[in-house]
Specification:
Blueprint (H helix, E strand, L loop, with lengths): L4 H12 L4 E2 L2 H4 L4 H16 L4 E2 L3 H8 L3 H14 L2 E4 L2 E4 L3 E2 L3
Antiparallel strand pairs: 1-5, 2-4, 3-4
Helix pairs in contact: 3-4, 3-5, 4-5
Length: 102
Amino acid sequence: MNVDPWDELQIDYVKHLPAGVELPARAARCFTCNELAVLGVIRDAAHKSPDGACSLTVSEIARQAAVCVRTAARTITIAIAAGVIGRDGRSLLNLCIQYKAG
């Protein structure tokens, strides 16, 4: 059985994404593993962007986090309300999602 190396990388990324998200204590208990994966995708996209903003669509975020669009949209709404991310037009701003060391 031939497994595409890209698929293996994607599976590995999604599997480890929630564990690599660090949030302030006040916000950390508000999110499930799937929601942490969504926040990890937003963090990574913002980190890679020259302007520091995530410009991915909700569908793209959901696909990369391996969750449904509804979960991604709900997570974004909760994260904005919790002050974890912000919105600037169509972009999402990472306000306090860090990479977890270790």
